[in-house]
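Internal tracking record. Fields below are filled automatically when a chain is submitted to the structure queue. Please do not edit lines marked as system-generated. If the sequence contains nonstandard residues, flag them in the REMARKS field before resubmitting.
Queue: standard
Priority: normal
Entity type: single polypeptide chain
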Amino acid sequence: MASNRVRIAVATNSLGKSAAGHDIQSKLLAAHSHGFDGVELAWECLEAHASSTLFSEESVRERRLCLAAEDIQRTASTLSLEIIALNPFGFYDGLTQEQDIQSRLYEAELWLQICDILNAPILQMCSCIYPLQKPLTPDKHHIASNIRRLGMLAQKYNKVVAYEATAWGIHVDTWQQTRDIVSLVNLPNVRLCIDTFHIAAREAGDPFNATAPIRIDGLRNLRQSLAEMRRTIKPDDIGYFQLSDATVADPNQRGYPRPDLNQPPYMTQSRNCRIFPCEPQHGGVLPVVEVAKAVFALGYRGWVSMEVFHVDMWRKDSSVPEEWARRGMASWRKVAQKCGLESPATNAKL
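SYSTEM-GENERATED OUTPUT FOLLOWS
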């Protein structure tokens, strides 16, 4: 491509939890003030806004969500922020019962209508995760059939479906599986969502091991995986790219806002310990820059989203959105430098 300029977004739920009182307006303002080009809108942020007093007179859920989306889009537009994606649509890919599939497709159409209102080009979907208790299949042909139905629905709205493997997915937990499934789907609007955390954690990490957070064979596994990526993935296969690192997790989940000792270890780490890349002062342990270098070496220059989850986001302090937006942009500048990319043009107040 002619330019190395990558457009950079931040996930709205990475700027403070809605349940802790951090509203979408404060998050959009923080993203704007620190120079982001766009945001990845989390469904929980949309729901929280729809539940505010602004829309209390509207009793129909779908209408309330659409009105909230219109309001968010107006604010984002005023701040010259693009809404790049709505996420995460889940609990779908491996379903086997037709009534369950139909129910999720019905919900997906609402999400796609909201994407239209937001002018968001991407509906992000993750693989099925704990604690879903429905009949599921690991069969990639069946999963591809399900996703093809979603992709065809998304084509009606001219939207891309970006499919992500979570490190603790019940039946899909690697980028290779999503690559193979997307290939079987064979629709131009169904692509991959690549996430540095999920790849580095799954291939190399040991989430509860403070002494050795990278497994003995971890770096070798990761480098083999990334070599395979360079051989088998093209830039256009990627819907968008998410960046995050993580600290070591506490297996006892002490002080975590929503403890659940039955959840998979990678889930505990992801939900409570994800930080931005290149933040050694905050204890990041995963080789995520290696993943970023591999993705950009493919020639990928599409949207990048800084997406993290941390216990700190549950603080009620009004400074949380600004603090995490500042950290996110500082992180991106370091990643861009390490990957040989242009620094973002920004109006950031740093």
